[in-house]
């Protein structure tokens, strides 16, 4: 092929994947109808010559590690997710659905960072989606008005970089990366080429000036981050901001983190006066009335490494329909259906002519297998019209034979249960011998679902059963 040969180029508007010919489906993100022609690309060969480095390579033990030490953002729950704070020069991408509270959270972070910013180095907040007046009103509502927080409403990359040169900020917040456009790059703001160019420019500023940068990112209808996938590879940290519109609970998860773990979760309470970190979110997941009621059972699920108390509620009612309803909320519907089948086949629980509703309290999501035992005990309690004691927690996976299978992190779950004041825990027998004693908590290992239900019913009357039922 001649060095001057010109071939057509096609690019996916969703992920940036390129091809030499048109196809109906992108081979990278599997989206249909997103591959478009972007013009002709010369197939030329280029060679790169070696140049002298600006600084020689040094032995690794002589590299200063203090430059990579995290600094607190002032928001404890966000620090938990980031691994202790934000590292100078790090670029953090926070993605989430519209209206979930991304801008509110970052405005609160910017205000707290500005309160502790060194003199002459304020925090710069650049908004491309709202006017400065709108952001000011939100800042007044959440108590984020501070002189060290500078606000600019810009959508041009060159002007944004000019603000950075003039302010010399200690923290830069850009809301959002899809609204900023580079005048030297073809395409409208939010396009693949524009997002890539803007992200690369902001990353260059962060690395050369050692300025931490927080970026807001949009998501597509399937929940993935909008724009080219290279955006996620370029930044240092990718966080997902999740939450139900009908619930006050918001969660931040680290999908990628070059400076810390990716299995931590930060919990926030979004309310009229702003957003507040929840070091103890149990109040949102447990009902206020802890009296014994048929059809309720508490479990301790794990969100990453964080134990989260979750109350499971079940209702079994006679159905007027030929095909009874099976409705779930906050749980994996397929696992709930399997658990109902095990209850009918192994314990003889009659559910055939009844509607079964199973839900979590407070909009919590509990989809791990370890909540199976609590679901089974709640449904069994509702079907038999017999309440479980309010001081019992249940943790374990239920197999198709009715066996209670081992799960991970039981020790952490038990410690959280004891902290919340629970006195009895029903856990899988396998691995129970390795558990350390938890003060104030009595552990009851069980091998089968039938045994777990019997233990829970007996514990409804304190003193009717001894410690450690075999």
Your description of this structure?
This protein is an alpha/beta fold and 470 residues long. The protein folds into three domains: 37 residues; 210 residues, Rossmann fold, CATH 3.40.50.300; 175 residues, Ribosomal Protein S5, domain 2. The chain is 25% helix and 25% strand. The strands form five sheets. Strands 6-5-7-8-4-9-10-11-12 form a nine-stranded mixed sheet, with helices on both faces. The chain has a four-stranded mixed sheet with strand order 13-14-16-15. Strand 15, helix 8 and strand 16 form a beta-alpha-beta unit. Helix 8 packs across helix 9 and helix 9 crosses helix 11. The C terminus is likely disordered. InterPro entries: AAA+_ATPase (IPR003593), DNA_repair_RadA (IPR004504), Lon_proteolytic (IPR008269), P-loop_NTPase (IPR027417), RecA_ATP-bd (IPR020588), Ribosomal_Su5_D2-typ_SF (IPR020568), Ribsml_uS5_D2-typ_fold_subgr (IPR014721), Rubredoxin_2 (IPR041166). Keywords: ATP-binding, DNA damage, DNA repair, DNA-binding, Hydrolase, Metal-binding, Nucleotide-binding, Stress response, Zinc, Zinc-finger. This is DNA repair protein RadA. One of its GO terms (molecular function) is damaged DNA binding. Belongs to the RecA family. RadA subfamily.
CA(first)-CA(last) distance: 77 Å
- CA-atom Rg in angstroms: 27 Å
* Number of E-state strands: 21
Average pLDDT confidence is 87
Outline the fold blueprint.
Blueprint: E1 6-12, E2 18-19, E3 35-42, H1 76-82, E4 91-96, H2 102-115, E5 123-127, H3 132-142, E6 149-153, H4 157-167, E7 171-175, H5 192-209, E8 213-217, H6 230-234, E9 237-242, E10 249-257, E11 265-271, E12 274-277, H7 282-285, E13 296-303, E14 306-318, E15 326-329, H8 333-346, E16 354-360, H9 372-384, E17 392-394, E18 397-398, E19 404-405, H10 410-419, E20 424-428, E21 442-446, H11 449-458
Helix pairs in contact: 8-9, 9-11
């Amino acid at each position: 092929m001649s060095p001057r040969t010109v071939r057509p180029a096609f690019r996916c508007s969703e992920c940036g994947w390129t091809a030499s010919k048109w196809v109906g489906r992108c081979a990278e993100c599997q989206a249909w109808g997103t591959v478009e022609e972007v013009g002709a690309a010369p197939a030329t060969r280029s060679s790169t010559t070696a140049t002298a480095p600006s600084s020689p390579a040094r032995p690794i033990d002589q590299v200063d590690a203090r430059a990579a030490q995290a600094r607190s953002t002032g928001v404890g729950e966000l620090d938990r997710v980031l691994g202790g704070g934000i590292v100078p020069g790090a670029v953090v991408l926070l993605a989430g659905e519209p209206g979930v509270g991304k801008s509110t959270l970052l405005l609160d972070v910017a205000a707290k960072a500005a309160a502790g910013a060194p003199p002459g180095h304020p925090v710069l907040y650049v908004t491309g989606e709202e006017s400065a007046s709108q952001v000011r009103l939100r800042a007044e509502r959440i108590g984020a008005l501070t002189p060290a927080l500078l606000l600019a409403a810009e959508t041009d990359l060159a002007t944004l970089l000019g603000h950075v040169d003039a302010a010399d900020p200690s923290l830069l917040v850009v809301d959002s990366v899809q609204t900023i456009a580079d005048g030297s790059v073809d395409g409208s703001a939010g396009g693949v080429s524009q997002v890539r160019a803007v992200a690369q420019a902001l990353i260059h500023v962060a690395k050369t000036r050692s300025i931490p940068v927080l970026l807001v990112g949009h998501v597509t209808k399937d929940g993935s981050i909008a724009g080219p996938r290279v955006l996620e590879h370029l930044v240092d940290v990718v966080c997902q901001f999740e939450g139900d519109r009908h619930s006050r609970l918001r969660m931040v998860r680290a999908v990628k983190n070059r400076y810390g773990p990716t299995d931590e979760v930060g919990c926030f309470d979004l309310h009229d006066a702003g957003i507040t970190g929840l070091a103890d979110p149990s109040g949102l997941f447990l009902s206020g009335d802890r009296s014994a009621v048929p059809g309720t059972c508490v479990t301790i699920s794990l969100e990453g490494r964080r134990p989260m108390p979750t109350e499971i509620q079940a209702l079994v009612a006679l159905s007027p329909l030929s095909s009874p309803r099976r409705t779930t909320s906050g749980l994996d519907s397929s696992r709930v259906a399997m658990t109902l089948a095990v209850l009918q086949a192994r314990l003889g629980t009659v559910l055939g002519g009844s509607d079964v509703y199973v839900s979590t309290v407070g909009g919590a999501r509990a989809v791990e297998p370890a909540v199976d035992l609590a679901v089974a005990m709640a449904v069994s309690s509702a079907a038999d019209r017999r309440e479980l004691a309010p001081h019992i927690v249940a943790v374990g996976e239920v197999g198709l034979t009715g066996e209670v299978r081992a799960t991970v992190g039981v020790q952490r779950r038990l410690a959280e249960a004891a902290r919340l004041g629970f006195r009895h825990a029903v856990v899988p027998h396998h691995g129970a011998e390795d558990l350390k004693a938890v003060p104030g908590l009595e552990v009851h290992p069980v091998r089968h679902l039938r045994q777990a239900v019997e233990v829970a019913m007996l514990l409804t009357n304190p003193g009717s059963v001894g410690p450690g039922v075999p």
